[in-house]
Amino acid sequence: KIFPIAISRMAYLERSSPTLKEALLKIFRAEKPIDIDQHFCEFGSYEYHIKCSVSDPKIVYVSTSTLLQTQGTVMFKEISSHTYDMIKKIAVGVIDIVNPPRLCFQLTLGIHLDNMPRGKEAIKIITRISEIQALILSSQLKDMLKVMNFQDNSQAMNNDRPIRIVYHPSELFYVFKQPEKMMAVYPMNFKDNSDVVIATSFFQELVEVGSQKEMGKAPQCTWSPIPPAQLRGEPVQDLTTNSGFVSFDITSRHLKGKRLDKTVWSLLNFYAYVKYHIKCSRGYIQRRMRKRMASLVKLLDNTYLEEEIDQTEKERCKYVKELMKVQKGKLMMKQRCKAMTRRMKISKFRIKIKGCGRFRFNQRWISLPKFSSKPSNKSYTKLE
After folding, report:
1. Quick one: fold of 1-150?
2. Quick one: which of 222, 254, 120, 241 has its CA closest to 172?
3. How far apart are the first and last CA of the chain?
4. Are the C-beta atoms of residues 223 and 246 closer than 8 Å to each other?
5. Mapping DSSP to helix (H, G, I), strand (E, B) and coil, where does residue 286 land?
6. Which end of the chain is more exposed for a tag (fewer CB within 10 A), N or C?
7. Among 242, 233, 225, which Cα is nearest to 174's?
8. Cα–Cα distance, 109 to 368 (Å, whole number)
9. CB–CB of 23/36 below 8 Å?
């Protein structure tokens, strides 16, 4: 059965194949023998085939095809003996190289499960087995760089055609020899215009940072919108880009000891690293935009609420003022009525004289005279 598997590009930054590791762990941890015949692809160009049968459960066959596609003066059609030795050293007695390999594959391994140690050591061995494609790619590029590094300037001038390396569809780079150094050139293409803007800005910053004194030991990086002169004569479709060309200067210092592994792995993962940076930058920009949008919406909502509250308060104040006016008018009218009633009561009832308070039994009450509008028959004498 063939299972095409789509895996994130960011997974390529890891050396181990996640699908191969998961399948091997499943077989190793199975309580009963299982029958597996699985064929899958990773990154569009790396093929794997895993076969395990119930009739022979002690051995698992893993086939892989991960050779670099090169075009130029240096060609590697077969895996070198040095790479075979490195693969055998992963787990002595556990891994065997099957000759000839399975049809349409460059390498077939036989993994003896009965010789596999238990516990964490088994997981380490399975993880290293799943790193075979990274090991082969790195070994091939190492051999290529070593051959070019040992060439003298006269040989480099005679073989002036650059080496075209394709380790992923639509992602390639060129390596060519120059006096006292080698150059790796990456034609950069992106589908989205936003990715082009982010990538171009990133390349310019990379060049600026690489020119500092603190980065003097790192490979010199340059960026140009046009291809270098050494790439003249290469296919037009390879040199048609929308993000320019990124170049790295590789000296003999970068090919010594442990630096060689880091240099090779960085060259193989440069495309993945750039895409990872673009993805993170887009996520960061989108988060900032969403945060800014949320703050603006919140500000607008607060302004609307404040205006609504102010309008409500104004209406309430207006109603209270009108109510107070009505209440005040009613209160004044009520007070006037009370005063008038009091005066009327005083005019009708007797008046109590305070000075006669000590005469308890002889208190006299004086009532107001009654006045009438009718003329009286009584006469009065005017006093002089």
Report:
1. Yope Regulator; Chain: A, (3.30.1460)
2. 241
3. 149
4. yes
5. helix
6. C
7. 233
8. 137
9. yes
Count of C-beta atoms within a 10 Å radius of residue 9: 14
Instruction: Identify the CA nearest to 16 among candidates 83, 84, 76, 64.
Output: 64
Residue type, 276: Y
Q: Is 176 helix (H, G, I), strand (E, B) or coil?
A: strand
Task: Please say whether the beta carbons of 111 and 230 come within 8 A.
Answer: no
Q: Beta partners for 41? A: 47
The order of strands in the sheet holding 171-178 is 69-71, 163-168, 171-178, 181-187, 245-250, 220-224
Contact 274, 206 (CB under 8 A): no
Q: Report DSSP letters for 80-118, one per residue.
A: -HHHHHHHHTTSTTTEEE-SSPPTT-SEEEEEEGGGPPP
- Residue 43's SS3 state is coil
Domain range summary for the chain, segments of one domain joined by +: 1-150, 151-268
CA–CA distance, 326 with 321 (Å, rounded to integer): 9
Residue 216 CA to residue 212 CA, distance in Å, equals: 7
Q: Is 53 exposed, middle or buried (0-12, 13-18, 19+ CB in 10 A)?
A: middle
- One digit per residue, the tens of pLDDT, for the chain of length 384 reads 332 333 334 444 677 788 888 888 888 888 888 888 888 877 656 788 889 888 888 888 988 886 565 655 444 456 777 788 888 888 888 888 888 888 888 888 888 888 888 888 888 888 888 888 888 878 878 777 877 776 655 555 455 678 888 777 678 888 888 888 888 999 999 988 889 999 999 999 888 888 888 887 888 889 999 988 888 888 888 888 889 999 998 888 888 888 888 888 888 888 888 988 998 998 998 899 998 888 888 887 777 666 666 666 666 666 555 555 555 555 666 666 777 777 666 655 555 555 555 544 444 444 445 545 555 555 555 555
Amino acid identity, position 131? E
Chain centre to alpha carbon of residue 273: 14
CATH architecture of 151-268: 2-Layer Sandwich (3.30)
